[in-house]
Write a structure and sequence with these properties.
heterodimer, A: six-stranded mixed sheet, five-stranded antiparallel sheet, 15 helices, 20% strand, B: 6 helices
């Protein structure tokens, strides 16, 4: 493999060419070749009494270069290799495919370096991680395979941060939805701090930062942990997971590190070493939520009723199994004929393959296309409230575009529902109106109707 | 209802338009029955396989966007070449072209009648399809199940 760069700059030592065995450097105008090893580069820099080396258009301090990121710089180590290996091991307890894969490669020492093995592992990761996360992971893998460029570095770091953001969001809305369900049954009182953080979620006019999402997750977890609330665990694996989101926990630490990378991206100060850092931190982050490979997401699109004479009633659920499945189908349309009902126009999170026990994530997570009768799913996360009016803003996870939901109030007290349902255009408006109403209902149920009792004031 | 059999030229233009709109899967589906008994079927099958494989790799993230674009461009070029080949063959051997036109009319699913001079306006139903009209839409009974019937 040959990877050449021709940089004209004022820096003294510039890496100009990289092969499997050698590095070609321009040392003060003189071309020199050394072994493609970190120790050889260190020796050269020491002999020239300098700490820095230029590669592509970035300058690196030798003190920040270790064997792992040196491999990245010289092309010996590809993007996502470490992540793939670590994650496939992390999901092994939850994924039969990962377990079998690891059995097959047990005798191959560095299988992640070989594309034929690592591609298979990447496939497993893409179809194992729940819904939108699997799709996002496959996008990260594709970026990792791009030719080396400045744009690739930026996209790679940004995607790592984005995956962490969507995963944290997914956990937050899962807890929030569960809490809303429980609160409807039996109201609970929240402290001033808890109310402030929850209020910020509902009333935020700007997209929350990663640390803000972590704070919301910590507060929600705190509510679930309080014995007096007598709340069930939101997810079966939560008990083990909750220690990682506290200050100093692996999940929390990786979020802080990824947030720091976000600052570097915003200021265009990133370099290749940040890609290594982003990959490492995302690996730590996703390893903590490996249990999400046990979960699935579905978007319920339409439910029909079927009851022939003298037979039991059945419901025909048409839904989209969100994410990538083990046949490499993305967002497969499926049918479930069952005597059970389920909420319509809803995005569900459920464990294993049965959504009869689920957490409904809507209206915090919506399938905009299902609501507007368009083909294929368009899964959008609640982002913020618009500044210019009573409008909810959602972000479409595939391309980051913003979808705005403004309540039009089509259903009035005197509206004939049958007449309204006749027209598809009106039905679309009704569906979108419902989502906005549900969002406000959730807000009122969790925060609005309950008066805070501040015991400190007594 | 239009009962005219499309000419090969119209069909080729439509296929080229689909390629321009990046609807390669539809072009491949159109070509396959048309070239059923032709040696060019192998080429279509090969491109279909390549297309399915690259789509799968894109979904799984095991290919970069640049590589995916390259492969899709190659498939696009191969299909355009194949269409030009079909066009040239028809010019050289009009009988073969007629054969292809018959294949097009047979595979056309929109109620085109083969070798017939029937002309009608309004509701003309031929064959064993049951068609039902509700409000302003016409539905094919094969596409209705209990779920959407309700």
């Amino acid at each position: 493999m040959r990877n050449e760069t021709h940089i004209e700059g004022t820096h003294n030592i510039v890496i100009q060419g990289v092969t499997e065995s050698t590095l070609t450097l321009n040392v003060n105008g003189e071309v020199q070749e050394i072994r493609n090893e970190l120790s050889a580069l260190r020796t050269l820099l020491e002999s020239r009494q300098t700490q820095t080396v230029q590669y592509a258009d970035k300058i690196y301090n030798i003190a920040h270069i270790d064997e792992a990121n040196f491999g990245f710089m010289t092309g010996r180590r590809a993007f996502n290799e470490a992540l793939t290996r670590q994650l496939i091991e992390s999901i092994q307890p939850y994924s039969l495919a990962a377990k079998r894969f690891l059995e097959k490669v047990a005798s191959i020492a560095d299988w992640e370096h070989e594309v034929r093995f690592s591609n298979k592992a990447k496939e497993i990761l893409a179809y194992s991680f729940v819904g939108v996360l699997g799709i996002q992971l496959s996008k990260l893998m594709a970026i990792g395979k791009e030719d080396f460029s400045d744009a690739k570095q930026r996209k790679y770091i940004a995607k790592c941060i984005e995956i962490a953001r969507y995963a944290t969001n997914l956990l937050c809305v899962t807890l929030l939805s569960k809490l809303w369900d429980e609160q409807r049954q039996q109201p609970r009182f929240f402290s001033r701090h808890e109310r402030q953080v929850l209020e910020a979620f509902f009333q935020n006019h700007f997209e929350s930062s990663l640390p803000e999402r972590l704070r919301l997750l910590q507060v929600l977890d705190g509510i679930f942990a309080q014995a007096e609330h007598a709340l069930p665990l939101p997810l079966e694996e939560w008990h083990d997971f909750r220690t990682t989101i506290t200050e100093g926990g692996a999940f929390a630490t990786s979020i802080e590190a990824l947030a720091a990378l976000q600052v570097r991206i915003d200021r265009a100060q990133y370099n290749l070493l940040d890609c290594v850092e982003a990959e490492n931190q995302l690996t730590v982050f996703l390893s903590q939520v490996a249990f999400l490979t046990r979960y699935r997401m579905a978007s319920i699109r339409h439910i029909g009723y079927w009851q022939p004479r003298n037979a039991d009633a059945r419901y025909l659920h048409r839904y989209t199994a969100l994410g990538i499945d083990n046949k490499a189908q993305k967002d497969a349309e499926k049918i479930n004929c069952t005597p059970e009902t389920v909420q319509t126009d809803a995005v569900l999170l459920y464990r294993d393959d049965n959504y009869s026990r689920h957490i409904c994530l809507s209206p915090f997570l919506i399938d905009y296309n299902a609501l507007t009768f368009e083909h294929g799913p368009k899964i959008c996360f609640f982002l913020s409230q618009a500044i210019d009016g009573d409008i909810l803003e959602y972000v479409f996870h595939e391309d980051g575009s913003v979808v705005r939901l403004e309540k039009q109030g089509i259903l009035k007290p005197d509206t004939d529902l049958n007449e309204l349902m006749l027209e598809q255009q009106k039905q679309k408006i009704l569906n979108l109106d419902n989502m906005v109403s549900l969002f406000h209902e959730a807000h009122a149920c969790l925060l609005g109707a309950v008066e805070e009792i501040d015991f400190e004031d007594l | 209802m239009n009962t005219e059999t499309p000419t090969l030229q119209t069909w080729l233009e439509q296929a080229r338009l689909l390629i321009a709109e990046d609807r390669l899967d539809e072009v491949l589906s159109m070509l396959r029955p048309m070239l059923e008994n032709s040696p060019q079927l192998d080429e279509v099958l090969q491109q279909s396989g390549r297309f399915a494989a690259i789509r799968k790799q894109i979904r799984l993230g095991t290919v970069s966007q640049a590589e995916a674009n390259l492969t899709q461009n190659q498939i696009r070029a191969a299909l355009l070449e194949l269409l030009s080949e079909i066009e040239a063959q028809q010019a050289a051997a009009p009988a073969l072209g007629e054969e292809m036109v018959r294949a097009i009319s047979v595979m056309n699913p929109q109620g085109i009648v083969v070798n017939s001079s029937i002309q009608a306006s309004g509701d003309l139903h031929i064959g064993d399809k049951q068609i039902t009209q509700n409000a302003e839409k016409i539905y094919n009974i094969d596409n209705i199940d209990n779920a959407n019937f309700s």
